Amino acid sequence: MNKVAKIAAVAMASMMAIASITPAATAAGTTCAKRTNITMLGTIKIEIQDQFMAAVKDYNKSQKCYTLKIIQGDRKLTFLQNVTPLYAKKKAPTIMTALQEVPNMASKVMDLKKTALAKLAPSGLLSAATVGKKLVGLPTTAEAYGLVYNKKVLDAAGIDPATLNTRDKLEAALKKVGVHFSGLWWSLGAHFTNIYFANASKTHEGRLKVLDAMADGTKDLSADPVFKNYMATFDLLKKYADAKPNLTDSEYDTAVAALANGSKAGFWFMGNWSEPNLMTAAPGTNFGLMPLPISNNAKDESNLSISVGVPFYYMIDQKQSTAAQRKGALDFLTWMYTSKKGQHHVADPVTKNGMSFIPVYKGFKVNPSTYMSKTIAGYIKNNHVLDWMNTFYPAGGQDKYGASGQKYITDAITADQYAKELQDAWKGVVKTWRGKTV
Amino acid sequence: MQALLKHSKKFFLFAFLPMAIFIAVLVVPFSQGVFLTFTNWDGFEWNKFVAFENYAKSFQDPTFWTTLNFTGTFVIVSLVLINVVAFGLALLVTAKLRSSNIFRTFFFIPNLIGGVVLGVIWQFIFNSAIPSLANTFDIPMFQESWLNTPGNAFWALIIVTVWQQSGYMMIIYITGLISIEQDVLEAARIDGASALRTLISVKMPLMAQAFTISLFLTLRGGFMAYDVNLALTGGGPYRSTELISMHIFQDAFALGNFGTGQSKAVIMFLMVAIAALVQVTISKRLEVQR
Amino acid sequence: MSTTTRHKKRSPARMVTFAVGLVLSVAYVMPFFLVFVNSLKPKFEILANPLAFPIQISWDNFNQALDKMNFFVSLSNSLIVTVISVSALILISSMLAFYLSRTPNKFTKAVFLILVASMIVPFQALMIPFVGLFAPLVEGRNIPMLIFFYMGFGTALSTFLYHGFISNIPKELDEAAAIDGASDFVIFWRIIFPMLRPITATVAIINALWIWNDYLLPRLVLDENSQTLPLSTYLFYGQYSTEYGQAMAGLLLAVLPIIIFYLVLQRQFISGISQGAVK
User: N or C end of chain B: which has fewer CB within 10 A?
Assistant: First the structure.
């Protein structure tokens, strides 16, 4: 059982299990002399903003000690672009969420090792947020990506997603129903490249060694058979795409509309976060998630597995906050993931005003119930999960890999140039996956 | 002594407040900014002088050269097109049509609205409206969003900039055109000069000042453009349409390179200053000659 | 007489001019019309066909946009910042210009030169230290500080415009008043300032357009609870997904006040800008 599978299994187990853990203590019920203001930058993801705000509102009502306020930040800007001016202004948010930027923030945020939530989280999910001996982040949820499909369309065409375990079989299916391939920089830069890095070696250490070689500038991607397979799949999706690639921000909504409509595309390379959008666009239709096969060997783990990982970690500021604020921040997070009301906000489907998150903490009593979360559960149960190597990408790295992907998807560069650009972008990056600090 | 007293009283009464605010808001941060480029400042603190190291690093950054190149092209193309279009519009609305006033009203409207809002509106037009129209009528050139490829995205940026700014420059040209005295034009007509001839040899030289102002404003606007860039292309696709303002913002706040970011900003200031000086000097010389 | 005018109106050249003007006018306002049409449609109808008229007109988007962008709060913030900043700029820069132009010496000449030169300093060149310097002062007094900053950034251009105008007012006027025993203060407010009306309109319009639409400075200065209209229109744009219908409605709501203002005061706008151009 590989490491990610273990993590995911724990997540699943906790999701399914009847909780036997007493809820962690929160501020509910206690009285405070005056309310302490705490702030959070963003709402994890803008897509669930309304649902997250509903949780915040409930939390503020549920106790008398803290008031949580959301700082919206600028959506056109990255996490670091938003947070750097706030630190410069001495108005750092108490709570922040990030992934690849976690190492950049390590010196500014508090150690969460002794918190109640850290004890409830599967230890495997904490390793990516451990810098030196300090635990600097807590997982928000788990997410999965691969080929999203419109079940109605596949059923009508007589395609069983479970049988599509080689690239050739996928091609036969794509001929019938078509695929939507998004030219979004983050999708191509973080998720699509991970299909290569997660399959580049069979062991976790082997995959980290590939990253080492990339950082040292000694890796020749064009000579790697896995990379060749990866590029062949890239070409396949380009070939059967339902529309010309769209590189702009409007792409996500266009893609949701295309897959929901289904007349030209039955598949889309994306993740489970799109399910709420798809269900809003096509009420009553089921959408599932399956692996993206990258070779013609039906036994390859790569063709049987979906990528599962933590998209964002919570961090709590240490430099510009008071002890009371830090306590409040922890109290809010604990409330969200351990109280019944909080759990409903986290795991309920969007139609019930929840965030539709896959829970990762032990003791969860609310289970996700949508079709896609059930298909994901199936893969996790059978250990068919791939690492999120993109967790280890350097801050700003996925922008560069995404740019190269956008060039390749629009035929602006060749496969060899694409490989070369990836190698150049990786050369000299700090090996945070080896515990080096930025 | 009494004169001095009276003088300083007048100074405090009239000039002290605006000058103090001006110095606090503009002069102090700017001087500090220039000073910091010679130190190892990291956005928070500095502890040693590094001479021209930040400037050297800026010029070694290949993306900075791409940006300079892109900004230069943008300034020249937008400057030419805005002024040609604005002058054309000015001629159109001074052609004494009954509908002139309504035309003028319409042409000026884009100017009322900030670049961010305009950029967002046009992003929708380029991404959705135009491809949808092109698909209906099967025009291949417009079926793909113009914001997809670096070359087309450049023109998209130009179109929106021209659309936004031509109305303002139009007003300046109208002012120039109507300030020309009627008897001069009458004399030209009696001499049998054609409309085009009158325009080039009589009207344009007589309104040279309007050209000086309009060229100066578009030059400055081109170098400082930020809002439309941010909202329309966001620098994409793949950072190919980043104008210098956005590049500086990215360098400093996204990548945390405060030293080079600030140096690039000083370089930008020098470029604007030199370009503006050259343009105004040439224009003024032409004004005098005519 | 009447035959010649009719003939003139029908001449081919005039027809072509009119046609060109008409086409261009349509091109200039088309984007706003498109935004309006789409603001009446639900999101997926917009994505499916951005050019079609709504199947069923619905004002839902406007209700949601009003609510989400906290429209009336943003509107009043925008109004407060613009009105106070512009009034303050008129006040301080007209007085500074009066001083600089009526007290000719080395010092005032140097000050004037520095003001003119500062007009070509890009905001980027001082943005980074600016944020660091003023951050502690901004806390808790967002709006007053923003007004203060606009006073600083607007002084140069406004003073420049007033300076050109005041220099053309004959000095004999204030000298005569001075002989009658009027103080400088009285001379300025009773005699000079009323004469500055045309250029005051210019200063007001140019600064109002800039401040009303400004994005970067408010973004750096204001926090969540005190947004201006240009900032609030960004609320509909997600990292991945955009609420198109609401965004269209929000954009329209954000531009409506200034367009109405312009249509009402059109004459003043146009003459204000021409006045500024001739200096």
Answer: N
The complex's ipTM works out to 0.87
Contacts of C98 in chain B (CB under 8 A): 14
Pairing relationship of beta strands A179-180 and A267-271 according to DSSP bridges? parallel
Q: Which residues of B touch A407 (CB under 8 A)?
A: 238
Q: Do A257 and C237 touch (CB under 8 A)?
A: no
Determine the Cα–Cα distance for residues B283 and B274; give it in Å rounded to an integer.
Answer: 14
Helix axes B208-224, B62-93, angle to 10 degrees: 140
Does a structural domain hold residue B17? no
What's the sign of the alpha-carbon dihedral B208, B209, B212, B214?
negative
Contact between chains at C152 and B25 (C-beta distance less than 8 A): yes
Say whether pLDDT at A298 is over 50.
Answer: yes
All structural domains of chain C, each given as residue ranges with its CATH number in brackets, are 2-62 (no CATH), 70-236 (1.10.3720.10)
Distance, CA of A288 to CA of A308 (rounded, Å): 15
Residue C21 has its nearest CB partner, among B103, B124, B272, at B103
Q: Does position A11 have pLDDT exceeding 60, yes or no?
A: no
For CATH 3.40.190.10, the residue range(s) in chain A are 19-142+311-364, 144-308+385-427
Count of other CB atoms within 10 angstroms of residue B137: 8
Which one of A56, A89, A91 would you mutate to disrupt binding with C, by most C Cβ within 10 Å of its Cβ? A89
Of C132, C223, C239, Cβ closest to residue A75: C239
Q: What is the mean pLDDT of each run of 10 residues along chain B (290 residues)?
A: 79 93 95 92 79 92 92 96 96 87 91 86 88 86 86 95 94 89 87 86 86 91 92 87 91 79 93 90 75
Q: At A149, which helix (H) or strand (E)?
A: strand A143-150
Calculate helix-pair angle for C106-118, C142-167, nearest 10 degrees.
120
Q: Is residue B54 part of a domain?
A: yes
Is B137 an interface residue toward A (CB < 8 Å)?
Answer: no
Judging contacts by C-beta atoms under 8 Å, the chain C residues touching residue A86 are none
| Residues A302-314, mean pLDDT to the nearest whole number | 92
Residue B195 belongs to domain with CATH number: 1.10.3720.10
| Banded model confidence at residue C4, pLDDT cuts 50, 70, 90 | very low
Out of A103-117, B110-124, C103-117, which region has the weakest mean confidence (pLDDT)?
A: B110-124
C84 contact partners, CB below 8 Å, separation of at least 6: C147
CB C235 within 8 A of CB C68: yes
* Residue-range definition of the domain harbouring residue B207: 38-289
A19-142+311-364 is classed CATH 3.40.190.10 = yes
Chain B positions touching A248 (Cβ under 8 A) are: 123, 127, 145, 147-148, 236-237
List chains adjacent to chain B, taking adjacency as at least 3 C-beta pairs closer than 8 Å.
A, C
Q: What pLDDT is attached to residue B252?
A: 81
CATH number, domain A144-308+385-427, options 3.80.10.10, 3.40.50.150, 3.40.190.10, 2.40.110.10: 3.40.190.10
Task: Confirm whether B31 is domain-assigned.
Answer: no
Higher-pLDDT residue of A28, C63:
C63
- Residues of C with CB below 8 A from B32's CB? 126, 129, 133
Express the helix, strand and coil content of chain C in percent, nearest 5 each.
Answer: 80, 0, 20
Are C237 and B115 in contact (CB < 8 Å)? Answer: no
